[in-house]
């Protein structure tokens, strides 16, 4: 299983949206049957076989209040895109989570730096989502306090970057599956 972790600040806006977007793109459930933080990415909606069954997706925050729900705006925008993140609960980023991760995609540079301070030498590679997608830019700004327009913009940026990152992610997952890493 190739395990992808999205990281933002509170794990209530950007990283849950990114998790939902990637789950949708790889054919995994985005609803209540999508698994738990301890066992992410196991559910499949509508009885369909996922396009990438060897990939799991989860998220965490550098300053998360564990157990908090996703922001109302994030839930609403994702729902409009047929992504259900209503059952999401925030998790604080820990070394234990990183030890069970194969790839970390941070939403901004300061998230990447926070992860790098926690990750061990043999830990997962850490990139910003923009960097992994081979895009320039500072990342996806925090929409908190910006209203629905800021959340819609963040969603659009995350979706665009995730679409661009998907081929590279697929290659890494396939290599991991072949080598058994």
From TrEMBL:
Question: What Pfam families does this protein's entry cite?
Answer: LMWPc
Q: Where is the Phosphotyrosine protein phosphatase I domain positioned along the sequence?
A: 2-168
Q: What SMART domains has UniProt attached to this entry?
A: LMWPc (SM00226)
* Gene3D superfamilies associated with the record: 3.40.50.2300
- What is the protein name given in its UniProt record? Low molecular weight protein arginine phosphatase
* Species: Eiseniibacteriota bacterium
